[in-house]
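We now fix the convention by which a protein and its fold are recorded. Think of the row as the fold of the chain written in a discrete alphabet. Here is one such record, which you should read through line by line.
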Amino acid sequence: MAYQFTILVPIFNEEDGMERLFSKLSEYLEVASRKTNVILIDDGSSDNSRTLIKNYCKDKDDFQYILFKNNSGKGAALKAGFEATTAPVLGYIDADLQTYPEDFELLLPYIEEFQLVTGRRVTRQDSIIKRFSSRFGNGVRRIFTKDEMNDTGCPLKIIRTDYAKKIPLFAGLQRFLPAMILLQDGKIKEIPINHYPRIAGESKYGFSNRFIGPLMDCFAYVWMKKTYIKYEISEKG
């Protein structure tokens, strides 16, 4: 039976939490409402994450992996996952497990009507500084993108694969997924989900890459929106 849903997991230096990640993903695959596989994408980790990934996937048909030669960023990891997906629907989740795989079941019922469905973390388990910078960054992005999303950075999303594959590769891709679906005339929706404290590893984001970098990306998005090319082929001969 072909896969109906693929979960993408970008990973960078998360060795302390890998066993818990593998366990949570495996548990979800047992109860998932759709035939599901997982693609683990290592973004050039310098710790033991790569070895743990390879060893875990060795004899598991539903787990595959992609290993980057160098650290290229979450946007690049997601784009590589988009291109590798053959299922009609894909989702992504962060390796830190501040969101749980089972909450994909809250999003999946809406994917027939919407091209992207994203979680909204209603009970953020983060520091005050992280919550403030995230809220401020989301507000700035809404001004530029007009996507009406309250939590663009939520690391639990599902997308129709044909739409995901049309998203161009650029730095900060993960922050603009709803906006890039809107550029394709798709529909997007937010669903409240749970959020959990980080138990292992360290956050890879601070003020500069939660606010300053994303602010610069917004100007790049405005240019991209003006120059974005859309077309439909009616016939080939």
